[in-house]
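TEACHING EXERCISE
Course module: macromolecular assemblies
Task: Read the component lines below, then compare them to the predicted structure of the full complex.
Student: A.B.
Group: 4
Components provided:
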Amino acid sequence: MMEEKGRENGVAAMKACYRRFDPAAYLQYNYTPPRADFTRKDSIVPWKLACLHRAFTEGDMSGELLVDIGSGPTLYQVMSGCEVFSKVLLTDFLEVNRQELRRWLQDEGQCSLDWTPYLQHVCKLEGRRPSAWTEKAAKLRQVVADILPIDVHCSQPLAPDALPSAGADCLVSCFCLESVSPDLAAFTRALGHIGKLLRPGGHLMLIGALGESYYLAGPGVKIPVVPLNEAQVCTSLKESGYTLIRLEVYTLTQDMRVGVDDVTGVFFAKAKKD
Ligand SMILES: C[S@@+](CC[C@H](N)C(=O)[O-])C[C@H]1O[C@@H](n2cnc3c(N)ncnc32)[C@H](O)[C@@H]1O
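Instructor-supplied answer key:
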């Protein structure tokens, strides 16, 4: 009973931190150069896009439905998957983030970030001309079927009728679970909760921060993060009913440490639900 109360308090404190999340500032901190410098192979964003491109195109994916868990205000994480899956659902806990995504999908301007260089870069990875980015943008707008509220701390993170009863064919989740959980146990529980959304044999692509204890989600908005190491990621995946296919690690160069967090590395895990 006491233990349960403690858990609830930890989760509630994390949710309170997110009241001040500023999508425009978050995008500026993490999704502009040097972290998103497409002229450099050692920049974080091109590394993430290359991992996602490889994982989605190596021929072991099947099915129709891809769900992105904790999308935030970003779209890069579904730019490869939108060519493989015919239906994509974006999800986030915060209405401000869902609104930011809606603005891009409805193509009405006033987006906080221009996703064009991202679309161009993924086209290049796919062996297409960078100018094919307009087709990719149209494809992405066509396959995103909805933007839903989610809470990974609930044993049922989405509304009951949000997914077909068999579950999604694939999940992608980037920098969400470790940055919304009060501790490693909550991170592992959240991994189990999202696993319920995935059909057996379906894939999970998990990207996250290593060694991070906080990040800034706006000026003066410091959000605590569970500092993870590679071994903990592997153990949590196993405990939550996934078989690891591959784990890749990126170590931040000195110039990627721009003062908006204390992250030391990024992991990319591709796993399969047992
Ligand atoms: C660090 S951001 C990651 C955003 C994006 N996926 C990316 O790759 O940059 C963490 C996201 O988790 C969302 N979030 C906060 N609490 C959550 C919860 N309980 N369940 C699901 N998502 C949550 C936040 O709104 C935020 O968009």
